[in-house]
Amino acid sequence: MTEILTPDQIAHYEEHGYLVLERHLPEAVLTSLRAEIARFEDEARAMTASNDRLDLEDSHTPETPRLRRIKLPHRISEPIRDLMYSDLILAPARDLIGDSLRLHTTKLNMKSAGYGAAVEWHQDYAFYPHTNDDILAIGVIIDDMESENGPLMVYPGSHKGPVYDHHVDGVFAGAFLPEEVGLNQADAVELKGPAGSISIHHGRIVHGSALNTSDRSRRILFYEMMAADAFPIMGSMTKWDGIEDYNTRLLCGEPTLNPRLKDIPVRIPQPQPDVPISIYEIQKGLTKRAFGTIK
Ligand SMILES: O=C(O)CCC(=O)C(=O)O
User: Fold this and answer.
1) What is the per-residue pLDDT across 86-98, written as a single tens digit (0 to 9) for each?
2) Can you tell me whether residue 189 is helix, strand or coil?
3) Which of 4, 8, 98, 164 is most buried, most CB within 10 Å of its CB?
C-alpha cells in the first residue's frame, strides 16, 4: 500500500529517476515560505560576506544585495521545519524509499531574476556516497519553473549508470561535462511546474541548472534524505558527528545500526578543495563549464 503515489508514478521514478507532482502544496504553505524568504533577504542586506546561514552571490554588495542560498533553512525557519516533517514531503519519500528516513540536508536555492547562479552538472551521490542509494531530493518549487528561469534539469535513467568522475586535476570539483562521458544533451529533461509543485530526483541522477537571465526568480527549497539504513561511506561529505547526532536526523520510522549494502558504483569525493563547503564554491575549481557565470 502506498500513501500518495500511484504505481505508475513509482514505476516512472524507478525507471527514469525523477518525478514532478504538480500543485502539491496548499497556497497557505507557499505564502509562508515566501514570507520567510523575504525575512532572509532583509538579513542579507546588512551583510558583506556569506555566513553559516546565508550564501551570497559573488556579485553581492550591501547596496545591491544578492542572496544565492539560504543554508540549512530547516534550522532557522519554523515553517520550513514544519513542512519537512509533514506528509506533504514525507509521504512521497516513504512511497519511494521506505518508512524510515533520515535527513541529509536542506537548502533553499534562490536563482534570482537576472543573475541567479548556475549549478553545473553533477550527481548528489558523488558528494555523499552511502552504503545504498535509497537517497533522494525533494524540490519545493516556490516560483513557476519554466525553461527561461533556470529549471532543474536531469538526464533520465542516469541514476542507473556510473558515478562519474567529478574531479579536476585530482581534486574534487563537484561537476563534470555530460558530453565528455557520452551523455547526449538532447536527452536532458527540464523539471518544470507551477509554483507549489514538487520535484523528486534520485541521488544518483545527473542534474544541473542554467543561469537565470530572465526577469523572474526561480526559488526552490530542497529536502535531501535517505533510507535510515543508508550509512555514509568514509570520505563522503555527509557530516558525521557520531551515532547520536546521526539519529537526530531521523525524519520518521526507526533508526538502525545495520547498514544495508547495495552493489553499486562508488567514488570518494576526496581530496576536497580548500574552500567553504558549498557546491558553488566547490564548482569554482572547474576548468570547463556547461553553463556560464554572471559578473
Ligand atoms: O538549484 C538547482 O537548480 C540545483 C541545485 C542542486 O543540484 C544542488 O544544490 O545540489
Assistant:
1) 999 999 999 999 9
2) strand
3) 164
